Amino acid sequence: MSKKMQCSDAPLSPSASLFRPETWRVALLVVGAGLLSSAGAQSNCDTPGNTFDEVYCLSKVLVKADDELNAVYGKLLKRLPAAAQVNLRQTQRSWLARRDSECTGRDSRLGEVIYTGCAVDMTVQRVNFLNARYRECMSSGCQPSKLRR
């Protein structure tokens, strides 16, 4: 992806303008690394001009959310006792499978599609959930029973 775009680095929030219901339906077609056009790279994520710009902006949010997910997952995993680590790994794999199932599809004409709005929403929710578990570990002690989600 191009580094030209200057989208906000503000914390992720499902109430952000990129999470409008109509944006949720925008699909990112997985056709290769060159998917995003240079025109999209020059757009403004605050007011995307068209569907390609919306997909571009959502994909940037998804990449950021995925980075945050990986970071908090790693921090939490290090804090948990061994048995809880096994549980977290299992629930994370289950969550990934559910996200991938709910946020992807197959179109007979277009092939594989990723519903980026769905993937962003689910990933942000998971980041928030894991951050809450990490905060618990750091403040009042880890509570492995809360990992069963």
From TrEMBL:
Residues annotated as signal peptide: none
Domain Lysozyme inhibitor LprI-like N-terminal per the UniProt entry, residue ranges: 50-130
Gene3D superfamilies xref list: 1.20.1270.180
One of the Pfam families matching this protein, by short name: LprI
Name of this protein: Lysozyme inhibitor LprI-like N-terminal domain-containing protein
Taxonomic source organism: Deinococcus malanensis
